[in-house]
Amino acid sequence: MTDTELRRLSELRSLLEGFAARHAASHPAPEARHLDPLRAILKRLNAAVRGRDYRGFREADAQLHSTVVAAAAVPLLREVWQVVWSGLQGFHQRGFEECFPDARVLIEEHAHLVETIANGDPAAAEDAARSHVEAVWFRLAEQQRAPLARGDDPLQRAVSHIAFRLQRPLRLTFVAEKVACTSAGNLSRLFRQRYGVSFQSYVLRLRLEKAAELLKSTQLPVARVAFRVGYRDVSRFGQHFRRIYRCTPRDWRARLVATAGKFN
């Protein structure tokens, strides 16, 4: 299977799992028969990481995704998803072992997905599922990517990396050297040339735009939104958000709710 075909198949998996997570979270009361197994699987994933049990981690990971799809209770969805999942196994197997040291990040994503389903937040659950699948694909592709080809765009490589790593620390020197395969000075120049802002300003803008989207479409607490876009300090997140949107994150959400109410 070509890289393009793999990417398209991964996009289909993202759509299916996002759809499944949304429906799983839409049930009036998420069923314990699904939530209890999901929480048990999270414990298995953590144990596998601590014990460096690569095979156990992969098996638990597959079971977690299958359980989320089953929790949607949509006829034939699990069968369709299984076909897509099976088609991606060769790709996943080649990259999983190289990414295993970073497995705790995957567990954080899994835990967030389970939490959004348990809280009955369909939009947040869909965002969590799709973001996780797309980030995993990018991480695996990044591990296997050949050296920078002639004509490849270092800025595009950097922008793609940022989009899939918003919740993680992002440093110009690392992104320039390890992702864009250029110097920090040149990458900084490319950002100013293309977007009219510095690398850090671009990252900040993207984080706050994503935060505004999550505040609008989900019920996630402000602290969780801050964490999802890369802030560990909620007060700092509030300061940055207020600087751009001229109000606090809570006020932003309240205004959107009030505005929506006028049209309902």
- Specify the CATH class of the largest domain: Mainly Alpha
Average pLDDT figure: 85
The CATH topology name of the largest domain reads Four Helix Bundle (Hemerythrin (Met), subunit A)
Q: Count of DSSP helices?
A: 14
DSSP strand tally = 0
Tell me the β content.
Answer: under 5%
Q: For this structure, what is the CATH homologous superfamily of the largest domain?
A: GntR ligand-binding domain-like
Estimated radius of gyration: 19 Å
CATH architecture of the largest domain: Up-down Bundle
Separation of the first and last Cα atoms: 48 Å
Biggest sheet record: none
- Give the topology string: H per helix, E per strand: HHHHHHHHHHHHHH
Amount of helix: over 70%
Structural class: mainly alpha
Instruction: Return residue spans where pLDDT drops below 50 for at least 5 consecutive residues.
Output: 146-151
How many separate domains?
2
Question: What's the gist of this structure?
Answer:
By secondary structure, this protein is an all-alpha fold.
Please tell me about this protein's structure.
The chain has two domains: 3-145, GntR ligand-binding domain-like (Four Helix Bundle (Hemerythrin (Met), subunit A), Up-down Bundle), CATH 1.20.120; 149-264, Homeodomain-like (Arc Repressor Mutant, subunit A). Helices cover 78% and strands 0% of the residues. The protein is built from 14 helices and no strands. It has helices spanning 3-26, 32-50, 54-71, 77-87, 89-99, 103-118, 122-144, 154-164, 172-180, 184-195, 199-217, 222-228, 234-245, 249-262. The longest helix has 24 residues, at 3-26.
